[in-house]
Amino acid sequence: MDSSLLVPAAIVGAYLLGSVPFAVICSRLFGLADPRSYGSGNPGATNVLRSGNKAAAVLTLLGDGAKGWLAVFLAQHYMLSNVAIGLIALAVFFGHLFPIFLKFKGGKGVATAAGVLLALDWLLGVGVLGLWLLTVLFSRYSSLGALIAAAGAPMLAAMMWGGSFLMLTVGVISMALISKHWQNLQRLLTGTEPKVGSKKKPK
Which proteins does it associate with, and in what oligomeric form (predicted)? Predict the structure, then answer.
């Protein structure tokens, strides 16, 4: 392939990879209802967990995280520039948020963002995952964990990389995560947000 086409092709490929809806695929494999039809209606691991099938939820989590990790890992493996790596990271992440295979109505991106961060730097990924995990363990609110982790990620990235393009990439991902969780924030404030493990309800 012409080297001038490599990065654009990688960005398109990353977007398509991000668009793969593991929540829907895993639910079908386990004979479950479409995750868009109950709970929050979000095609993600937390909502799949509301079906009561932990295996399907875990596979969804791993799939969504792996696609974010793989896109960035391949970009690094082929020694692309930091700008190209950042654009590919954004492409796979926004592919999950706005997947072409689900008419651009995707998940909230927490697992995919985690995969991206782990590939960019495992220390950054572990630090952000730690913020999410501690928050969820103490509050049992996955959305609160996502909001706190999203707020903390750019600060950790700035400490590690300064004002680099990759730090800006993390900042964009964080703002998108917070935006996708805006309704969750409203429900948290009113005390109506469902906790992790709560039973599914019709959408």
Answer: Probably interacts with PlsX.
d(Cα 40, Cα 194) in Å, to the nearest integer? Answer: 9
Cα-only R_g, the chain: 17
Tokens in use for 98? 């706005």
Q: How far apart are CA 175 and CA 89, in angstroms?
A: 14
Query: Which pTM does this prediction carry?
Result: 0.92
Q: Domain residues of the chain, as ranges? A: 3-190
Distance between first and last Cα of the chain = 46
pLDDT tens, residue by residue, 114-154: 999 999 999 999 999 999 999 999 998 988 999 999 999 99
DSSP state of 200: P
User: Crossing angle of helices 182-190/142-161, nearest 10°?
Assistant: 130
> How far apart are alpha carbons 188 and 181 in whole angstroms?
10
Note whether 50 and 199 are within 8 A (CB). yes
Phi (first) and psi of residue 91, to 5 degrees: -65, -45
- Our measurement of the distance from residue 91's CA atom to the centroid of its chain's CA atoms, rounded to an integer in Å, reads 12
Pairwise CA distance, residues 118 & 66, whole Å: 10
